[in-house]
Amino acid sequence: MEAPLSFHLSDQPAYWYDNGRADLEGILHTRSLSAAVAGVPTKVKFEIGEPYTSQTHTVSSIVWPVGAKGVPFIQQGSFAGETEFELSSPGLYVFQCRVHPYMLGAVVNDDPTTPGADLGKSVHWIDGTDMPTASDEILFIVSKFFIVTEPANWQYYSPDHPVVWDPQFPSAPVMTGNADGSPNLIPNLNDYFHAKYHLPQTLNPPTKPDVQAVGDMMVDTQFEKSAGKDKPGSITTFDGSTWEMDRKMFLPSINMNNPHNMGLSRDQKTLFQSQWFSNKVTAIDLATGKELHTTEVGPSPSHVMRRPGTDTLIVPNNGGNRIVELDPAGSKVIKSYFTQAPGQDPAFPHAHWVSFDGKHVVTPNSNESNASLFDLSVPNMVKPFSGGFPVATSMTNDGKRAYVANLLDHTIRCLSVDAPACPTPDGSIKDTYSIDLREHYNKISGESNGPYGLSPIQLPVSPDDHYMLVVGTFTGNVLEIDMKTNKIVKSFPCGPGCHGINFGAKKGGGYLGYVSVKFANVAWVIDGDPNSDGDLSDARLTGGVITSGAATKINDDTPSSQFGQGGQGVWAYPEVYNGWVQELPDEWKSQLTCQQQNPLLKAVC
Question: Which residues contact 216 (CB under 8 A, 6 or more apart)?
Answer without folding.
Answer: 237, 238, 239, 240, 246, 247, 504, 572, 573
